[in-house]
Amino acid sequence: MSLQKPHIITEDNIQYILGELKGNHILYDFDKILIYLDVKGKLLFGEKFKIYKEDTSILYKLCNYQIRDWQACKKLNIDIHKGILLSGPVGCGKTSLMKLIRHITPHYQSYEMIPTRNVTFAFNHIGYKIIEQYGDSRFYCFDDLGIEPTGRYFGKDCNVLGEVILSRHELFLKYKFKTHCTTNLNAEEIEERYGNRVRSRMRELFNLIGFDKDSLDKRR
Ligand SMILES: Nc1ncnc2c1ncn2[C@@H]1O[C@H](COP(=O)(O)OP(=O)(O)OP(=O)(O)O)[C@@H](O)[C@H]1O
Ligand SMILES: [Mg+2]
Predict the structure, then answer these.
(1) What mean pLDDT, rounded, does the chain reach?
(2) Closest ligand (CA of 94)
(3) Taking a C-beta distance cutoff of 8 angstroms, is the pair 19, 7 a contact?
(4) What residues does 145 pair with on adjacent strands?
(5) How many domains does the chain have?
(6) Of 47, 52, 168, 200, which is the most buried if we count CB atoms within 10 A?
(7) In angstroms, what is the span from residue 86 Cα to ligand 2's centroid?
(8) Residue 12 C-alpha to ligand 1 middle, in angstroms?
(9) What CATH number did the domain enclosing 137 receive?
(10) Residue 91 lies in a domain
């Protein structure tokens, strides 16, 4: 990646130009971003990957967020300082999109995808230190919030991801550290699973971007 030209990305010796440089500002072109995402998606997930027309509005939001176009985000009611909570039914493509979208801005700090199940499994082995570990300055996307089992350490149950979100929320307030999540749960289910304290903090921590509940399962 060239530091002066982060909007020009090379894959397999082919250059993808995602926009135009105006002074020291990049004017991104959404259609060009989609062309690149189609290519990069195929490289990451295989030839079957494609950009679905019905996902365009989700992609538009995610892209504008990712490139930090604050004017577009304002219109979309997205706060650039918060993270993303990408919700939607099983198999609609949440995990793939979160893995993919970070590649359009090689000049910005990226995030690690962490399956929530791994967090609880680590908790069951190691204990409360794990919650501390995710309360650090790194940038995470917790993948599949809500499918993880309840944590259990030395005979004591713990809602591990609930605790992790509480610490991430504190970090957000103090230092503006961001966190992303994907989930199958809707707001009521989140409250049921994590309680209203967590749900209320999640509203502050995340912009909610939701697939339609009737979105296709792309595994089929
Ligand atoms: N745009 C796409 N084109 C083709 N296949 C896709 C696309 N997006 C996702 N897939 C495929 O569909 C399957 C489900 O995608 P993914 O895991 O991203 O969905 P998900 O919403 O995270 O599912 P879950 O709710 O089960 O976590 C995967 O096999 C993935 O490779
Ligand atoms: Mg997933």
Answers:
(1) 96
(2) 1
(3) yes
(4) 183
(5) 1
(6) 168
(7) 10
(8) 24
(9) 3.40.50.300
(10) yes
Q: Cα(207) to centroid of ligand 2, in Å?
A: 18
Q: How far is the CA of 87 from the centre of ligand 2 (A)?
A: 10
Q: How far apart are CA 9 and CA 103, in angstroms?
A: 9
Quick one: what percent of the chain has pLDDT higher than 70? 99
User: Residue 197: inside a domain, yes or no?
Assistant: yes
Average pLDDT on 21-30 reads 94
Residue in the structure block whose two tokens are 């921590």: 205
Query: What is the extent of the structural domain holding 101?
Result: 8-210
Task: Report the percent of the chain where pLDDT is more than 90.
Answer: 96
Q: What are the tens digits of pLDDT across the range 143-199?
A: 999 999 999 999 999 999 999 999 999 999 999 999 999 999 998 999 999 999 999
The answer to the question of residue 54 being in a domain is yes
The residue whose CB lies within 8 Å of the most ligand 1 atoms, and thus the one to mutate among 39, 95, 215, is 95
The two three-digit tokens of residue 186, written as one number: 């809707």
- Rounded CA-CA distance 110/140 in Å is 8
Per the structure block, which two tokens stand in for 217? 């399962």
Residues in the chain: 220
Q: Which residues line ligand 1 (CB under 6 A)?
A: 45, 48-50, 52, 88, 90-96, 144, 182, 184, 218-219
What is the amino acid identity at position 127? G
Supply angle C-alpha 131, 133, 134, rounded to 5: 70
